[in-house]
């Protein structure tokens, strides 16, 4: 294996359980989204993302109510829309700051990230969640504030997670050759895209899922099994 200098990690299904995102974060945002939009509609950032959501849906002259209904539908569909993710992040901020929840991390993740950082590796996040949502996630984690271990964050403004060009942009941005970067994810299509860009890959197969006999990517059930 070529020496790894940087690790880029996915969140949902990789550092953290899918159920925390689907059963805690998504319902929190879904319940509060209509009132949040109504009370923050005068903010330029909110207006921008409402406009982007309508554009993505091909709605030419959508009412505010129509866009709210669209966004709620997208939460139910788990659509990886950059606009939806930006708005969800703004709503989750209130929940984290009010202490309504802390972000789930698998038990070994925090110590392993600290160990890798201590070994001089540069650590990054690449998630469909917006960069502000990622920062909140690791700041308010069940294992404490992990912000200090990360050198940077990438979201779908860099590009979709299943497209090779996104990984080319990430390695360019972090200033490493792709073969020195390890991308960790639970989604094979994301790993395929990263591999096509020349990155090394690690497939997190979290129990109760099991590693297939001939995995398409080096597969691990925990971060502790990865030796970069
Ligand atoms: C940043 S926390 C919320 C994660 C999220 O909204 C999501 O869709 C997770 O996608 P990932 O790319 O981390 O699997
Ligand atoms: Mg994932």
From TrEMBL:
Pathway: Amino-acid biosynthesis; L-methionine biosynthesis via salvage pathway; L-methionine from S-methyl-5-thio-alpha-D-ribose 1-phosphate: step 3/6; Amino-acid biosynthesis; L-methionine biosynthesis via salvage pathway; L-methionine from S-methyl-5-thio-alpha-D-ribose 1-phosphate: step 4/6. The keyword DNA damage does not apply. Its cofactor is Mg(2+). GO terms for molecular function: 2,3-diketo-5-methylthiopentyl-1-phosphate enolase activity; 2-hydroxy-3-keto-5-methylthiopentenyl-1-phosphate phosphatase activity; acireductone synthase activity; magnesium ion binding. Pfam families: Hydrolase (PF00702). It catalyses: 5-methylsulfanyl-2,3-dioxopentyl phosphate + H2O = 1,2-dihydroxy-5-(methylsulfanyl)pent-1-en-3-one + phosphate. CDD domains: HAD_EP. Belongs to the HAD-like hydrolase superfamily. MasA/MtnC family. Monomer. This is Enolase-phosphatase E1.
């Amino acid at each position: 294996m070529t020496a790894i200098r940087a690790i880029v990690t996915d969140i949902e299904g990789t550092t953290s359980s899918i159920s925390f995102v689907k059963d805690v974060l998504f319902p929190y945002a879904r319940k509060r989204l209509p009132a949040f939009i109504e009370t923050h509609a005068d903010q330029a950032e909110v207006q921008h993302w409402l406009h982007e959501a309508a554009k993505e849906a091909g709605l030419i002259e959508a009412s505010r109510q129509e866009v709210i209904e669209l966004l709620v539908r997208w939460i139910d569909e788990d659509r990886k829309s950059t606009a939806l993710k930006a708005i969800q992040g703004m709503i989750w901020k209130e929940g984290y700051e009010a202490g309504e929840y802390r972000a789930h991390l698998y038990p070994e993740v925090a110590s392993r990230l600290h160990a890798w950082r201590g070994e001089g590796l540069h650590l990054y996040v690449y998630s469909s969640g917006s960069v502000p949502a990622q920062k909140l996630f690791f700041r308010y984690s069940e294992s404490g504030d992990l912000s200090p271990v990360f050198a940077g964050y990438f979201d779908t403004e860099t590009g979709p997670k299943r497209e090779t060009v996104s990984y080319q942009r990430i390695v360019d941005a972090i200033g490493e050759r792709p073969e020195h970067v390890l991308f960790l994810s639970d989604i094979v299509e994301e790993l395929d895209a990263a591999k096509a860009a020349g990155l090394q890959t690690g497939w997190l197969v979290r129990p109760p899922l099991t590693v297939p006999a001939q995995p398409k990517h080096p597969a691990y059930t925990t971060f502790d099994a990865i030796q970069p």
